[in-house]
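Model the whole thing, not chain by chain.
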Amino acid sequence: MVEFLQFTLSGISFGMIYAAIALSLVLIWRGTRLLNFAQGGMAMFTTYIALEVVRHTGSYWAGFAVALAAGVVLGAVAELAVIRPTLGKPELNAVIITIGLLILLEGLAGILYGGQYRSFPAAFSVIGLKAGSTPLGVSRSDVFVAVAVLAAALLLAIGFRYTSAGLRMRAAAFNATVARLSGIRVARVITVGWALAGLLGALAGVLVSPSTFLYPNSMDSIFVFGFTAAVIGGLDSPAGAVVGGLLLGVVLSYAGGYLGSQGSDLTALVALGILVVVLMFRPDGIFAGARVRRV
Amino acid sequence: MTTRSTPRVLAAALATAVVVAFLSIKLNAFRDYQIAEIAIEVTAVAGLTVLTGLSGQISLGNGAFMAIGAYTTALLLLHLAWLPFVAALVIAAVATAVAGAVVGVAAARLRGPYLAGATLLLSVALPSVAYAYPGTFGGDQGLNVVFATPGFLGVNFPLTRWQAWVCSLVALITLVLLANLSRSRVGRNWRAVRDDEVAAALAGVNVARARVLAFVVSATCAGMAGALLAIVTELVAPGAFTITLSIALLTAAVIGGLGTLPGAVWGSLVIVLVPTYATDVATSHGLSTSVASNIPVAAYGVVLILVMLVFPQGIQGGVRWLLGLVGISATRTSREASVPDVTPPAGKAQASQHEALLARRSDPPESHEKEGTQ
């Protein structure tokens, strides 16, 4: 029973990171109908930048802030420089370009920082918390991870619902043509969407790196889990992305914990199984209504 | 895809075989090894270029299918020492085809980005199986493969030359078969599905079956490439089958020109030869190995982005343009399309009924589809 509680809590902590990646994918998907394969690579790169800042200033929070700012810049620049020109071309072109961006960033990180694993500092203590004498399997740092992502998600939700910028973004995602006719600069809205996605990705990178170490490919598996979470949630729904991330985090935590010594190696395979099952039976996510495809 | 008659394809394959045989005898062992590497790359890239360029599906999992082929071959040769390599190759191809069919059935329901994501997850997940079951798959160290030259060639025949011959033969057979397939009804169905799924379905094409078949064909090619890799490197370890491998295959297909088999050859030449030279140059200029080994990776990224932005038809598009300048080829090329224009040449009178139907359809309203499914 104690084990079960530990697996659940640590699953929630990792699940929130998958949720952050999933949210960033959903933001871009709603604006451009594109899956950004470079999201993990961008997060990896901004985390390296954060590590540099932490090493030079000695302050974790300076690195944290710089990572988020770098994420915003990287997202916006990527959209303006390489995604915008593919508008109106087959969607395969843009997909291949995001893959190109991914390995460009991974190659650059390898050139600049080398391939070795680097430890990344955590904001708070990583010593496990206890309730009385039972260890809970999570630390203050894990709690911070969950709270930070939840806060970011809530801020986004509030922004989307109650600000005019949020209304513009929802309108552009709902119907770009009508939004454009109503005077919304859809192109600018899409750039803002990419910038916000870059911010969320950077947040996920900074939060996950204390437990996974940092190396050029360190975000690959986090990205595919975030993608799986986004698909579980339906790729179109920010709330679905968060729930999908939590579900996936908890299930993978059980799989890693209960499948014995092979468990931790097989989590990706379990995620693949979940993804295939979801896509076979609920291709638009487990929260989707009837399926509509306009032709 | 240029429309070529079977005799022309066979003649081209034969000519290439003669050139490769000549080169492999003239060049040294390292060059023979590179020939084998290129042939392996061609086998895998040809399958991927057919999948992506003709059927419009994108796979980031072909490196994983190579792993399945390689491990199948290694296990067979390890436990059944009497088994000839040809049999192991066929079994590996069948095993990968089955795996491709399983993924492909899921793929048939997935549109573009979902498929790419699912196959990417496959690339991440599959190598970890080798770590999870070290007893069977050798874990991190991998499995050793024993491969020798056959007795009739004599004891002095270099192994690398024999490897180059075997790999080149398989690559050429694969290319000929794929060329035939893409000109057949199957290939036309793939293009129809790629260009407009709904129009294809209305014209009587079984969209799901066409998609799955394309995926199985591509996976089978990757599996054979994996089997060849096993006998050339004589070691099958999970470190060789990372996501970078899958992306390198895609890069080769894109550089060469998506959907064209000659493009698969150009792309493979670039992807095998350029990193070797780049690494040589970088190390001779005193750069550290981590820098030298990452320069090609970053370069793949730049090339993928630039080719897609500036010249989506790739090298084969350029070759056709040059040939067109001197008036050799009558094949139309299109600067706008990301994938080569597949309109059949005017001379092809006996186009099948549904193809004619498809040719007459009005252009699909792309922008509407992008905004759909709200």
